Sequence to fold (1220 residues):
Amino acid sequence: MSIENLLQSLSELEQKSQTALAAIDGPDALEKFRVEWLGKKGQLTEVMKSMGQLSAEDRPKVGARANEIRTQLQVAVDLLAEDHQNKEWAKRLESERIDVTLPGRKVSGNQEHPVRTTMEELVRIFEKCGFMPELGPEVEHEFFNFDALNIPAAHPARALQDTFYVKGYPQIVLRTQTSPVQVRTMLAQKPPIRMVCPGRVFRADYDATHSPMFHQIEGLFIDTDVHMGDLKGILATMIRDFFRVELKVRLRPSFFPFTEPSAEIDIQCPFCEGKGCKTCKSSGWVEIGGCGMVDPEVFKACGIDPDKYKGFAFGMGIERMAMLKYGLDDLRTFYESDQKFVSQFSRWRS
Amino acid sequence: MKISLKWLSEFFPHSKFASSPTDKAELRARLPFLGLEIGGVQAQGAGLEGVRVAEIKSFEKHPQADRLNICQVSMGEGTDLQIVCGAPNVRQGMRVALATIGSVLPGNFEIKASKIRGVDSSGMLCSGKELGLTQDGEGILDLSSDYKLGSRLVDAMGLDDEIWEVELTPDRADCLSHLGLAREVGRLIKNKVQLPEFENLESATKDVALVSVEVQATEACSIYTAVLFEGVERTTTPPAMKQRLESLGHRSLGALVDVTNYVAQELGHPLHAFDADKIKGSKIIVRFAKPGETLVTLEGTQRTLHPEDLVIADLEKPLALAGVMGGLESGVSDATKRIVLESAVFDPIVIRKMAQRHRIHSEASHRFERGVDPNNTLRAAGRAALLFRQTTGARRRGAIIEVSSERGKRSQQKLSLNFDLRAFHKLVGIEDAQSDSDAIINVFSSVGIDAQVKSTNVLKVEIPTHRVDLFREVDLIEEAARLLGYDKIPERYPAQKTQSSSKTYDLYAKLRRVRSRVLDTGLCEMMPYCFVSDRQLSKLQSPRAVELENPLSADWKYLRPNLFLGLSGILSNHVALGQHDARIFDAGHVFEMSTSDFDPTSSASASKIPVRESYHVSWAIMGRSCEEHWSTDKTSIDRKRLVDFYDARGVFDKLVPDLAAIEGRWTSTQFIPLQDFLKNADWMRLLEADAPWIPVKLLHPSRSAVLVWPGKPPGKIVGFVGELHPMEKSDWLNLPTGLSLGAAVGEIRVFDDLGRIMGELRAGKIEKEASPYGKIGVSRRVPIVERDISLVFGPEASHAEIEKTVQKSVGGGLLRELRCMDLYQMPDGKRSLAYRLYLQGEGTLSDAEIQGAVNQAVEGLKKKFGAEIR
Fold:
């Protein structure tokens, strides 16, 4: 066979293959086509076999032409195969359709009590400011809960706090505040001191705003150069970090036996941001706790030189802070509710 | 302290602030910044706009009701109104308060025209209580005949007053009166306080005294004055005084008592009036009570007196509890003609202890406890003298007697203190420019405190005797800061030049870690009250529970000895709300009386508290083991499976690594069947002694375990896991009849004796952290091979034993893990158990090595338990 003949039959084959290619209507037909045209016994291979009769200089020309057709066909077949596969997948994926609006299987996660969350959040805020948490017992000796805090037995301030006593031990009380931890810390450590004490406290009182059991966090900072301005600074930082809005902090004169000067801590109402609402009784301000400069009598009782050292202390109710953050008005809900109540707080956590 | 704004304004005759709404509002807004919080404001006469002064012209019995009268009432003009009234005190010509139709009384009570038992009634005749004016609801208000008919009651009675509830801190004893508050208000309105008129009794001291006073207990009574009054002509309190006292919440008790109360409210000094004819020998003795003495106090209680009770006595017996409450017998009555008025200063601590001992909280004790102005005794007595004369006609006879101790005389002198400006700036931080000596002198003088420059930076401050709260320099620093205003203090962020350290932080961090790991189990944290009842305790062996002296209720008599009791209470609340699924936990302190002796007299007693606190974690799971989901196969067992022991145990298994970081022994915790304890009396005694908090009676005896650390058998008890006892469950959780649900619980003692641990940490002991992991192995990059074995065991072979045996039997360190994959309880009591061995070597294991390991395991089990391959 001459080179012309060969090239001629290659062109015819090309024609034919194109027609056959166009007729392919599914994966089976495609496979048949592949065997027929590209297989070892395919038509193209047959033509190539007769190439041996050609001269050495004609052989590459025909080879190149045959390869061109072969490649062409291979590409077309691959494309078709991919196309068929895509269609198959599309069919299968469609058949696997589900109702995505149905609820997922439950993964139980963090269901921390909101009081605990609030307490931990406050502790972390203070930790950032260098105030490390300290702990103490919940059942205390009156020395730590009262005497060392400048609340002697006959002081009217003792009556302010309805104290639970342990039967048979008039000196043993359920701590009415976390302040005894401050005393224990001051007795064990030399200044400078920078600590917070979070914890559970008890008072014999029960209504919508008083629970016999609640939680407090108190802070104490003692150093040689500390004044009320530092106290204000720390409180402002804490409020900003906790409520994540700029709320003004204001101190109002008050009395606590363990601080002098003493103050109540007011913040702009976090609900209305100071504009006035039901929570703040239209005043724009809510009270969150007490604070002051450590009374020299407390320093003396704890073996710290009141002339050399000054310090501030502050304290607030955890539940109060949680109520302000989450918008609750009955303190008792925290202790008397069910799992559903606690679970809903997970949405608040970031 | 209730304050009448009108009364307050009488101290400022030249100021009109009380009649200006804006001035009033400004005062209310500013007082809190002087430390005087206003807890409530009550506008008097609110809701009384439609109430008029009327007169009963005539009345007759209601034909259908014995208790009702039909009254014809006139308001001066117009036609008379017919009003049906049930009050017992109606009389002809009586001036009454008539709520006209359409008026809305306090409590949102609207007056409408009505028919009462068939008789028309157009309005209501009101009692003091209905109008919110007095406590008296028995009869209708009997108004003075001076009141103009038809006028508004508010105008006639002068009810345009405003009552403030001032919430005083205990240090501000000086503000327990209208005079006291006036001193503070005076600063705000820039007006000087003018004292009310009083008789000068000092000029009377030359006269002969007709009573005598002997103060024996000089340490408890620094000043005692007494004056005799004679010629009481009438004891009816004038309406204005009565109304004023009642508006402040004081019952009117006749003119003699009312005058003393009036003066106490006005000037702050408690007074007491004795019926002079009841004082034997006309002699007053101030002394402590003698053993066995008794006294019937005013309200009728017979009291046995304590030797530390200070009494006012005559020659025979105690007449009154000094400064706390008068005696019934010696008190004044309508028949009293002569009175002895007492105006004294008693020791705060003595009074406080008496008030506590006798559980009396009186207006007098409240003031004496906080401290009274020693210079107020004569002024108050003089004011009372004037009011006695005006209201009852009684006049002073003889000289006033004043007995003062040395201390009493000293207390009448002004205290002089130094005020160092540098100390002020150092503590308060207000800038120097805003608080120089002139500024400080100014603010002090605005509340009647004299200050003058003594030397550079030092002021000499004279403290008036009513300011019992100011006796140290630091008190003056606070006073100056208060008066300058805390808003002048600039914010500063404290320098962090020191490293903060916390001794107990280690403990805190561990608690935090354990709690967060419990949260990881998906349990929900609950915080039940930590008080429990007798009934709850009855389920524990011998709880040594901490009992409260003054519990709020019988249900809250003790502190919790475990967390389980609180959690099971929450479970039963869930059931009551129809929520039968719960997965909850609690972590916190539990309490028991410690066995060590507590000596309250020892000076070291404060460091030893007879209550032992430990830290527990407890969990409770109830209902179905799996969450119901729409996709669950309806025939699947899991859907129906109720919570059982293994749900509760799973929580513990998850916690082990974190617990091990606290105490290494947690990794070797053993689960001993509760039954083994119940069968062994010695072990039970041990459980009662070491872990009385385990609720043995509430646990399923053969589906519960006691957790121990290995040691002398049974080991150290550290917790329990179990199902609730099927016979106790319904009752304990209040299950509705027929409802069966699974409930499994667990509790562990994470820290034993927190007091000791905290004590050691504070003393500087550093706890070495136990490694929770043991020896850390290198990660092997070789595939793990799984092989299952299945054998039949006798009933005695426990999983723990089987596991131990396999671990011992498989050599070469090839066994990475062993898992129980299946359990089949056979009818003959034997158990078929399938185990999966996870094998891994240094290199890829050959079939022979794998088979060898499997054979070792099987042979070991055959040898140890006589187990047979299935």
Q: What stands out?
A: Strands of chain A lie at 132-133, 139-141, 165-166, 169-174, 193-202, 213-223, 249-256, 259-268, 285-294, 310-317. Chain A has a mean pLDDT of 89. Residues 3-93 of chain A form one domain.
